Amino acid sequence: MAERIKVLVLDDDPTGSQTVHSCPLLLRWDPGSLRQALLHPSPLLFLLANTRALDPQAAEQRVRRICHALKPALAEAQAAGLMDRWLIVSRGDSTLRGHFPLELEVIDQELGPFASTLLVPAFLPGGRTTKEGMHLLHGEPVHATAFAQDRLFGFSSSFLPAWVEEKTAGQTLAASVRQISCSDLEAAPEALRERLAALPPASIACVDAERPEQLTALGEAIWACERQGQRFALQSAASLINGLVPLPPQPLDASGLAGLRRGPALPGLVLVGSHVPLADAQLTTLLAEPACIGIELDVRKVARVVFGPERHRLLASLEQSWRQQIETVISEGHTPVVFTSRGELHCSSPAERRELGVELAQLMARLAGALAPQLGYVISKGGITTHTLLESGLKAPWVELQGQLFAGLSLVLTPEGLPVITFPGNLGDASSLRQAWTLMQQP
Hints:
Layout: E1 5-11, E2 23-26, H1 31-38, E3 44-48, H2 56-79, E4 85-91, H3 102-111, E5 116-120, E6 128-131, E7 134-137, E8 140-141, H4 160-167, E9 178-180, H5 182-185, H6 189-197, E10 204-207, H7 212-227, E11 232-236, H8 239-244, H9 254-258, E12 268-272, H10 277-287, E13 292-297, H11 299-306, H12 311-331, E14 335-340, H13 350-371, E15 377-381, H14 383-393, E16 398-406, E17 409-413, E18 419-423, H15 432-440
Parallel strand pairs: 1-3, 1-4, 2-3, 4-11, 5-10, 5-11, 9-10, 12-14, 12-15, 13-14, 15-18
Antiparallel strand pairs: 2-16, 6-7, 7-8, 16-17, 17-18
C-alpha cells in the first residue's frame, strides 16, 4: 500500500498555491474545518494565514493559533489511519518579503523540534532562481528590484546567507549559513540525503535551484530523511511544494478553466490592490481595453476618513458612491476595474500604514461581496486584497484550487461556485492582467 502523506502549507498570502491544483485552501482552522480538510484526498492542504498583512505580534499570534489547532487534528488523523506522515511548510514570498524568521520560530516551538532549516525561495515559473546563494529575478539580483524597497519587508542583499543575517538582526551570521548547491541536488540520491543529514543541529541552509528536477530531488531527499527521523523546518516559495508532492498535469487547460465562469452572461469584476510597479503597468494595459472601465479608490481620501472624525459614517458614504459607480459600469455592459490610487502614501508609522492597508482591502472586499451574486468571476490582484476578498468579502471558509490559467496564476472556486483568479502582485509582465481578463471573458 502506498504511503499516505500530507504536506501542510502555512501560506503567508493566498497566492502560494500557484504551482499546484485540486486541493483545498482553508481560511479557517477550527476543529471541524480542519477535520473536514484533512479528509480531502489531496496530499496537499493550504492554510491561508495571510500573515504578510499583519504586524509581527499579530503574525506570531496567528501562526501560534494555527499550530495549536493543527496539533490535535493531525494526531487524530494519524490515529484514524488517514495519513502516515506529514510535513509542514512555511510558504513565503519568492521576492523575499515576509516575517522571517518569526513564523518558523513559532512553528518550531509548537510542532517541532526540527533538526535544521531549509530556505528554498525559488519560484521557477516566475523566473525566481537561486544560483551560488544569490537569489535572482529573471537573472537580476532581487535586492536591485522594487520588491526589496518594500517599506515593511525591505532588504539590502540578494546573497541568501547575508539576507539571513540581516533578517535575524545578526543572531545568525552569514558565515554560519550552509549552502546546498545545484551540484549537490544533482548528485546521487544517497549523497544528497547524506548532505542534508550532515547539516549541524539548528542550522540554516540556503538551497540553490534553477530547474524543477533539482527540487524534485530535494523533495525526495527530505522525505527520505523524514523516514529516518530527521525533520526539517521548511521555508520556501511555491516551487518546492511540487518537489515534495509530484502532481499529474492539471486536469483542465486554460480554455477549460475559463469555462468555469459562472453564467456566461454574468459580468466580471477586477480588483487591483497591489501597488508594485508591475501591477501599475498591468493596470495601465488593462484599462486601455475599451470594455474595461476604471474606478479609482482615492487612497488619500480614504486615509483622511480613516484617521479623522466620523470615520464610519464618511467611509460608508464613500463606499456607497463607489458601489453605485460599479453598478453603473456593469449595467452598461462593461467590466469594472476597481483599483486603489497608485503610489505609496506616506504614513507616520508602520502601524498606521498597516491600518490603512487593511481598511482599503476591507473596502474592496465589501464592494465585491455585495455584488458577488450577480458576478460571473472575479480577478483579484494582490495577496492581501485577495485574502480579504475571500475571507471577509465572500465569507468563504475554504476554496477549492482548480489549477492555473497560466504559469503562477491560479483559479479557485468558492463553495457557491464563484471563480476567483488569485493574481500575485509580482507575477507576469505588463500584458498578463489583460490576458487573464481576456481568458475569463470567454463564454
